[in-house]
């Protein structure tokens, strides 16, 4: 997997801060991913590019609570 990520056509992914293995849930500025791993593939050649750890139910609920708290502050 890392070999695909290192290819020159994927250099832009590094510029975006992505890695060969990524966390897929953000709450309060903290990245999490305690769920299943999914593989992102290049649709042109079906080669894997990177993986993303999905949010677990707990990750999702934590992020939603953080969003609700932020919304209350923002709405004041």
Give your account of this protein's structure:
With 76 residues, the chain is an alpha+beta fold. It has one domain. It is 37% helix and 26% strand. The chain contains 3 helices and 5 strands. A 3-stranded mixed sheet has the order 1-5-4. Strands 2-3 form a two-stranded antiparallel ribbon. A hairpin with a 2-residue loop joins β2 (25-27) and β3 (30-32). The longest helix is centred in the last third of the chain and has 19 residues, at 57-75. The protein is elongated and about 50 Å long. The termini are far apart. The mean pLDDT is 91.
Cα distance, first to last residue?
A: 46 Å
Radius of gyration: 16 Å
Overall SS class: alpha+beta
Strand neighbour order, sheet with most strands: 1-5-4
What share of residues are in beta strands?
A: 25-35%
- One letter per element, helices H and strands E, the order comes to HHEEEEEH
- Total number of helical segments? 3
Overall pLDDT level: 91
Q: Which shape, going by the Cα principal axes?
A: elongated
List segments where confidence is low: pLDDT < 50 over at least 5 consecutive residues. none
Annotation, overall tally of beta strands: 5
Q: In the residues, how many domains can be counted?
A: 1
* Helical content band: 25-40%
Major sheet details: 3 strands, mixed
GO molecular function, one term: aldehyde dehydrogenase (NAD+) activity
Family: Belongs to the aldehyde dehydrogenase family.
Keywords: NAD, Oxidoreductase
Protein name: Aldehyde dehydrogenase domain-containing protein
